[in-house]
Amino acid sequence: MKRLLGLLLSSVFVFAVGGCSNAVSSESSVVCTAVESSITSESESETEASSVNLTEETTVGSDTLVVYFSATGTTEGVALRIAEITEADIYEITATDPYTDEDRDWTNDDSRCSMEQNDPSVRPLISSEEISLEGYTTIYLGYPIWFGQEPRIMDTFVESYNFDGITVIPFCTSGSSDIGQSGQALADNAGSGTWLEGRRFSADVSDDEISAWIEELS
Q: DSSP letters of 50-80?
């Protein structure tokens, strides 16, 4: 009789423990499901946020570009100030064969620049990496005046790109010579884009003068 009673008590105990185990397992399953759901939701939110940030970063940029060639640094100085005032991107045209002081000697008929400027067909090579003009609507194009003309390397540049849909604004630097027909010559060689009348600046031009000129263009 005692043995039978013991067996009955043991059965009740096993049943009770099994029920508790199933309850714990069920609760654990609910907890795990909730945690997984939370992690998935957070991960999706982070992915969405990353996508938004990436889109914002890739759409930020200037629609204005300042392009310049400078042999002595004078044109570069004006170009950098125009870029700062207009918050534009900037691109420097560099020659594969840099110009020396002897090359630019206008008193020597045999100097490199004398021979280049006397031959409209010359196209000096550019060593700067190519630039995409996509997205730009305005380009300020700067250069020194050599022998009353644009340096031939500027012709190389404008003939290498398509300026459709872009307003191009020439500017030059010189000691005394005006911009002359250099802007029109560049426009003719480019064969594309909307070209405005250019402007000549001296080396000591003030920021106020540059700003006033830019405002006049608006």
A: HHHHHHHHHH---SEEEEEE-SSSHHHHHHH
